[in-house]
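The material for today's practical consists of a large collection of protein records. There is nothing in a record beyond a sequence line and a structure line. As an example, a complete record with its sequence and its structure tokens follows:
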Amino acid sequence: MNITRRNVLLGATAAAALGPVAARAQSSEVVIGVILDRPEAGYGGLVAAPLFRTVARAAITRLGITPTEPLPLPPHALPVG
């Protein structure tokens, strides 16, 4: 396919969220890609992430993926003191 300037919609945006869904960090069960063409309500993760979450939850439930160990809190969520 020969893509030229006439095939590009100037000023158009896309939103995307990509990531693995895994029971263990070493083995992904599913890889999900959400790409929205010209989203109306925002950009990037703001609009793509909620759909990614919905699909990931459905995949986790359907495949019976259970966490093997709790993840530690990220640094910004640790108690101060």
